[in-house]
Amino acid sequence: MASQLSTKHLLGIKYIERKDIELILETADQFKEVINRPIKKVPSLRDTTIANLFFESSTRTRISFELAEKRLSADVINFSASSSSVNKGETLLDTVNNILSMKVDMVVMRHPAPGAPSFLAGKIDANIINAGDGTHEHPTQALLDAFSIREQLGTLQGKKIAIIGDILHSRVALSNIFCLQKLGAKVRVCGPATLIPRYIGELGVEVSHSVEDTLQWCDVANVLRIQLERQNIKYFPSLREYTQYFGINRSKLEKVKKDIVIMHPGPINRGVELSSDAADSPHSIILQQVENGVAVRMAVLYLLADRRN
């Protein structure tokens, strides 16, 4: 296995190799042991300064990154666009250059514009980690999802993974497809035809519009929320109808002839894509995903910091 990442940035799963993914997951195994010790901190990134630049609202991802950084003993700067000079017309590049002038080594960035982290990576010297760019990619979510599946099933090779819900507006779906396929899994997307991109079949995934059939097919169901904040037209008649046809509840799970794993990147719209009795069932590893997110992000930060040397 490789001992170093092939890239100095994490801009998307599309741009990294299988050996990079495997190295991150193996390193995350070690950090998961660390965060379950009584003393959860290691000095790996002491004297490294990391700026968290979030130009979009975030709770889980921002907190997960901040906790991962502090567990590694990094110095952390948190930036929120809502309380910054961005509101006064400052450009993205000016904002970042001002922060870098304070001797920042790494930047974790979430931005509504697809490609914003890649733009920055071509302009500045710091390591860039994409924490979600528009409807493009969310690489660390895909990595923690893969880590969680591997932890549950032992391997992803040959496993059948379904991604169910709003595929069209989801950066999680695209990163997951790239990651799962690179690790040898079979991928199916499922949802209303209006919420599945026309190009999706070109990525080598199966497409289904039947949740019942998909649940029977899969080993893992990764359920995505309806992203109403990104929708400027109606893609389905009503949330009630969406829930009836594409929502997952205990009744649908009880009809499945085998045990399957239920996942969700959060936040859950309970009673829409997942009922509480499904989200909180023994099938669910949603809380394990949250825990694993810290270990995986520690691994990413640690390995990218090594590329600076």
Structure overview:
The chain folds into two domains: 13-137 and 290-306, Aspartate/ornithine carbamoyltransferase (Rossmann fold), CATH 3.40.50.1370; 139-286, Aspartate/ornithine carbamoyltransferase (Rossmann fold). The longest helix is centred in the last third of the chain and has 21 residues, at 286-306. The strands form two sheets. It has a five-stranded parallel beta sheet, with helices on both faces. Strands 2-1-3-4 form a four-stranded parallel beta sheet. It has 309 residues and is an alpha/beta fold. The chain has helices at residues 18-35, 60-71, 92-100, 116-121, 139-153, 171-182, 211-217, 239-246, 250-254, 276-279, 286-306, and strands at 49-54, 75-80, 106-111, 127-133, 160-164, 186-190, 206-208, 220-223, 261-263. Strand 1 (49-54), helix 2 (60-71) and strand 2 form a beta-alpha-beta unit.
